[in-house]
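RECORD TYPE: inverse folding
INPUT: structure tokens
STRUCTURE:
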């Protein structure tokens, strides 16, 4: 009887170990490559998910451009789906290496965190967020600490792999209770908050460069010659009025000197 019990215990332990292998995600040792991920996606995924990631290649294929779907997912869940398969999707555990699976995940996020939106988010981030989170998003350039807690590190792979974009958006919107992170819902519009989340999301990937989108707000001061402000009707009027005022002051000054 005891032999049967031991057998059941060993069998149960084996099943548990197998389940752990299925549900755990192995995190990469270095930041995933978007460039390499694009190569993998094109060769192994685009047939079903479409070149634009919108699921156009196969009915029921996941749409990576769907904002609601993407903001509620995390990289760990994508890794498990790619590794073990999901519904009609076959497992790729024996077809793609661990690094290739993480690389393709980095690439598929780009269908959501598009360069245009992330570029707008970069301006907002560098203006409002880099002081605490650092220009590289790793908290290395933080200027203050609060209760021993440093600013959130967007380059921490194991942490970011289990975060949903909606969680970051909530933190930006409402702030983090008990921490130095303030709410931004009254300072940034909803679209601006999403854009800065998209930009922050890209810090976990090593080769997804984001260019600043749009024209930066000029600082007050003397206009540059490239603006040619003086050649506009308004600029000409300002010059004319300034000269007239100067001439009037000079006339009054000279008149006062003569009367003396």
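DESIGNED SEQUENCE:
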């Amino acid at each position: 009887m005891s032999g049967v019990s031991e057998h059941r215990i060993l069998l149960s332990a084996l099943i548990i170990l197998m389940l752990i292998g299925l549900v755990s995600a192995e995190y990469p040792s270095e930041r995933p490559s978007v460039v390499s991920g694009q190569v993998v996606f094109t060769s192994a995924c685009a047939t079903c998910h479409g070149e634009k990631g919108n699921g156009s290649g196969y009915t029921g294929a996941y749409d990576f451009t769907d904002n609601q779907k993407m903001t509620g997912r995390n990289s760990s869940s994508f890794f498990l789906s790619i590794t073990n398969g999901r519904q009609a999707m076959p497992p790729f555990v024996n077809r793609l290496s661990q690094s290739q699976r993480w690389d393709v995940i980095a690439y598929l996020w780009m269908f959501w965190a598009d360069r245009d939106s992330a570029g707008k988010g970069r301006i907002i981030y560098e203006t409002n967020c880099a002081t605490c989170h650092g220009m590289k998003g790793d908290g290395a350039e933080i200027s203050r600490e609060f209760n021993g807690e440093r600013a959130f590190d967007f380059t921490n792979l194991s942490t970011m792999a289990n975060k949903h974009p909606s969680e970051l958006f909530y933190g930006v919107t409402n702030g983090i209770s008990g921490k130095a992170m303030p709410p931004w819902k009254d300072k940034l519009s909803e679209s601006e908050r999403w854009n800065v989340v998209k930009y922050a999301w890209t810090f976990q990937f090593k080769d997804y460069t984001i260019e600043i989108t749009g024209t930066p707000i000029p600082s007050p001061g003397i206009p540059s010659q490239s603006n040619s402000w003086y050649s506009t009707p308004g600029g000409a009027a300002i010059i004319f009025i300034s000269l007239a005022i100067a001439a009037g002051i000079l006339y009054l000054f000279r008149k006062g000197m003569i009367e003396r």
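NOTES: The radius of gyration is 29 Å.
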